[in-house]
Write a structure and sequence with these properties.
Layout: E1 4-9, H1 19-31, E2 34-42, E3 53-61, H2 87-93, H3 97-109
Antiparallel strand pairs: 1-3, 2-3
Length: 114
């Protein structure tokens, strides 16, 4: 059996509706000898500029202790990764209506437009 299991899912995995199935899984892991730790973590609390909450389950075969990492300050947000849009970039990357229409007509004529 694996020494360590890591599960990641949406927090609703342990909601009232899903808890019976989730508990069944936890009981199975315990029967197999795993120590299991569960915590909902948000990417925002770990240096990622995105509000993304997930349930993490860490199961370790045997009698072990595990602590989830402590939150850290957010250092970067989306603006840190964005470039300023220049006119040159706009001409290169933005599809103008005329080009889009021409492409649609071409795809339609080829029977590739669904």
């Amino acid at each position: 059996m694996p020494q360590v299991l890591l599960m990641e899912n949406v927090p609703q995995v342990h909601s009232d509706d899903n808890m019976p199935h989730f508990q069944k899984w936890l009981d199975f892991l315990e029967e197999k000898g795993y120590s299991t730790y569960i915590k909902d973590l948000n990417a925002y609390d770990y240096g990622v500029g995105q509000n993304r909450e997930r349930c993490f389950v860490v199961s370790i075969l045997g009698k072990y202790s595990y602590r989830f990492p402590i939150p850290m300050d957010l250092r970067y947000v989306i603006e840190n990764y964005q470039e300023e849009l220049t006119e040159e970039m706009a001409l290169k990357y933005i599809v103008k209506n005329e080009k889009a229409r021409a492409l649609m007509v071409e795809l339609d004529e080829k029977g590739e437009l669904h």
